[in-house]
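RECORD CONTENTS
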Amino acid sequence: MLLGDVLARFDDETVAAETILSLGDLALIARLRQRAEAVGQSLGEYAASTVRCYAASAPDEEWITLMGALGRTQDPGAVCMTRAFTYMLAQDAAAEGKHSACCSEHQHR
């Protein structure tokens, strides 16, 4: 499946959750679950909002870094998802205790 197809189906919570689990990064999955619980969302809801927020708000430097990583991998979908989740979790941690207007649905607490 192409990355665009996966992203287009990320509104489906089941698809989002399955995608996260397919990455096989247990530490990342644990951090995503913890953050999802902290903001009162399911893992799939949080993942979907994270990807949308990443697409809407990541700065140019982040996109350049992502493009470089995509050019060096056999699995661009996994690299993109991992990068989006990792980047947004770092942004959430940096904004801890502050309200961020990143995306109205992507809650920072």
Q: What stands out?
A: The CA atoms of residues 53 and 101 lie 10 Å apart. Residues 3-94 form one domain. The chain has a mean pLDDT of 82.
